[in-house]
# Entry
Amino acid sequence: MAIIDPGHAARQLVYERIFRSATFCAAILVLVILGGVAVSLVRGAWPALQMFGPGFVIHEVWNPVTGKFGALGPMYGTIVTSAIAMLLAVPTGFGIALFLTELCPSWLKRPIGIAIELLAAVPSIIFGIWGLFVLAPVLQRHTQPWLIEHVGSLPFVGALFRGPPFGIGILTAGIVLAIMVLPFIAATMRDVFETVPAMLKESGYGLGATTWEVIWHVVVPHSRVGMVGGVMLGLGRALGETMAVTFVIGNAHRISASLLAPGSTISSAIANEFTEADGELYTSSLIALGLLLFLITFTVIALAQWMLRRLERQGRGGA
Amino acid sequence: MSRRRIRKSYNVMFLALSVLATLAGLLCLAAILWTLVTHGVAGLSTQVFTQMTPPPGASGGLLNAIYGSAVMTLIGILIGSPIGLLAGTYLSEYGRSSLLSAVIRFINDVLLSAPSIIIGLFIYELLVVRMGHFSALAGAVALAVIAIPVTLRTTEDMLNLVPAGMKDASAALGAYPWRTVLSVVYPAARSGIVTGLLLAVARISGETAPLLFTALNNQFWSRDLNGPMANLPVVIFQFALSPYGNWQELAWAGALLITVTILLLSIAARLLLSLFQGQRGGR
# Structure
């Protein structure tokens, strides 16, 4: 072969073009998928959106027999279960992240970190089946009767804890969700706390601050954006989680004042009813629910990503 | 109480709460694994691997579901991971700092945590409605869509760890970028890429929601990719929610199988990753 072979160079260039276009197309496909999701959801939801208009979002009735569908019940369930999950998981995740970054002896750091990450890898259906067979009976026998007796009689707050102890319901779903998103929140917060420069913390200790004071006045303000980002990432997961919730929520389309009553979330309604839905309007209404969920979670996750990215840029600028 | 004492007691109180939170988290993990193992082992027998899913009350196993899960996961990975790999290559090697890459990275991270049931609805509209019936193929495509963001993310991260000097050396020898990527970058990042693959398999083999209305379920042995196919997650879902004792037992056995598989995959991925980072960091 000659040292300069024009055919060889030309072939190389062709291969280069092919390879480059292949990688480019694959990358563009990511955008196409998101676009495809949006378009197909809107198309599938179209009959329901035409029929019910914006009223779909504010009506509670969900009646396949009369063909009336409103998303308020599942939306309420989605938001309330996620709120309960956040209420429980955020402080706990914060505690775990603090323990891992500030308190934990270094030989324990890796095992606990790995355990938390393994908890994150457990598929959500496992949380669901555990919630149904283990957590729900315990709640029904012990926690819920106690709540009904002691908290249920209080004014205002009491309304949230009245009625029979079903075991399954909004509260149980919220607790299962909390356990499920806990590892995500803990892991993100830990990563965020680790970006705090040691110099800042040492300065705090140098002034005589206690560990908690350094955490509260130095670590937390410094990692505020990242913490919120991590929490919202967890929220995005909680809002869209299907299997962990479907097992334990009881699938009822009404809104009850009590957290102990069965309810439904957007994803549990879709999972439970989709294959049984007969008629275009029913299926289309379920897809419209999916569209709503898509819009809500997309907004939350996009905001979370934007915040985490801002933190990353900050970190790089500061380094 | 002196101010110093108050500050000290606050400190002790909050640190104790933090330890408590960690214990609570670990306790949850232990409780879940414990029930899974006790219930799962009770339901486990050789029948599980040799017989089909039974009707209520009869004895049977999970063979068709295990087969279906394996097939759909395999096809999902075969479709999804090359796309993720190529897209990750583009972001890392060609368009590292372009605006388009930033947008793709952002959208990919959104897809990474998007609810999987939405992906199921998307594939339902895209394939099931057009084909007119549920099929294993649609299930596999749904899993592929979920696998893409996972492989893309890890591939990009891993390729970025390959030292620029190696790529420059290859370019200096006259190699075009494609040659450099195939002969230098991929081999150097091999264990990192395999990590991404394992993580993607772990992620999709436990997915239930996207299979509910794509692959559906099938009580019988089926190798027809064009028809509904049994799969472990959906079988677990149906059997666990049923009132039949033998179905619930099988659901636990299936749950144990899935979890053990996924935990092993995740641990393997972590080991490979630390190996890879050790290599790269040691330079």
About this structure: Chain A touches chain B through 89 residues (CB under 8 Å). The first strand of chain A starts at residue 62 and ends at 63.
